[in-house]
Amino acid sequence: MMSFNNIFAATVFSLCGIASVQAADQMYDFNFQDAVNRAVADGVLDGSVKFYLAGTKSGGKVIQKDLVTNKKTNGFAKSAESSCDHVLRSALIQFQNTAKANGANAVTNVVSFYKSNEKRSTTTYQCAKGTALAGVALKGNLVKF
Fold it and tell me: Using CA atoms, how far apart are residues 80 and 101, in angstroms rounded to an integer?
């Protein structure tokens, strides 16, 4: 016969296992240009800095290479699309402000960089969404055209 302490311990370990499974990040890919266009249309970005995913734009003078932004947001009870769009905007605002402060008017060669894992795409960005948080990490170059 199991004692109360053994039953309690088994229950706690079971719940911890469930919580860790539910807390794991799921990766999503969303259209980058559509998200940028929405942010400009909503006035979140001012449009003075252009954003180009790796493989979609070259040229200009590189002012700063491999700039990284890593943003998180509350994703609890929100859809992945909504959470990821919100956190991408935070990352793009940081890139925009840094670009303008350094005399750049574009961020080129943008790649997803979640947990320092580079993922290149010419159409999408990657977002991690867990139970409570959503995160986007990007890496790119500040450029003056």
Answer: 32
CA distance 140 to 121: 13
Q: For the chain, which domains are there?
A: 25-144 (3.30.110.70)
Predicted TM-score of the model (pTM)? 0.83
> What is the distance between the alpha carbons of residues 45 and 70, in angstroms, rounded to a whole number?
18
Q: Rounded CA gap, 128 and 132, in Å?
A: 11
pLDDT (tens digit per residue) in 119-135:
999 999 999 999 999 99
DSSP summary character for residue 96: H
pLDDT tens-digit profile of 82-129?
A: 999 999 999 999 999 999 999 999 999 999 999 999 999 999 999 999
- What single-letter amino acid sits at 4? F
How many Å is the Cα radius of gyration of the chain? Answer: 20
Sign, Cα dihedral of 118, 124, 130, 135: positive
Q: How far apart are CA 105 and CA 118, in angstroms?
A: 23
